[in-house]
Design goal:
This protein has 130 residues and is mainly alpha-helical. It is built from five helices and no strands.
Length: 130
């Protein structure tokens, strides 16, 4: 049972990572599939270590491994929020309802982050979403 709980928290962390990608790319009219995840400063394709939710950020010290460009703390915060929401829901409500509530919270975080991405882009003059 503990392995299943850990698996669900991992899935929530991975969904949080995808939410970050979608919130960054969709407002700019970019695909969430291609190109592969990369540094927006130097273009380096992210490797497996960089893609580990929360851990990649901590391992790299919040910077790109190639150009040392700072990565904002919002990405790991959203990933951690998704994982923590799942863990809290399972702990509080049990496996069945907890997992359902956890995924619902992750979905709300996703919609909120993507909507905020569109709003942020609209606020910039001359942006593609404006």
């Amino acid at each position: 049972m503990l392995a299943l709980q850990a698996y669900l928290v991992l899935v929530a962390l991975l969904l949080g990572s995808f939410i970050n990608l979608a919130a960054d790319r969709l407002p700019r009219g970019e695909s969430v599939v291609r190109p592969r995840s990369h540094c927006r400063s130097c273009g380096r394709i992210l490797n497996v270590v960089d893609l580990v939710p929360v851990g990649g950020y901590l391992i790299r010290g919040g910077r790109c491994a190639t150009c040392a460009m700072r990565i904002g703390p919002l990405s790991p915060a959203i990933e951690a929020l998704c994982g923590a929401a799942m863990a809290a829901a399972i702990t509080t409500l049990g496996m069945g309802r907890g997992a359902a509530v956890g995924f619902a919270v992750v979905a709300v975080v996703g919609v909120t982050a993507i909507t905020a991405g569109f709003a942020r882009l609209r606020a910039k003059p001359g942006s593609p979403a404006g």
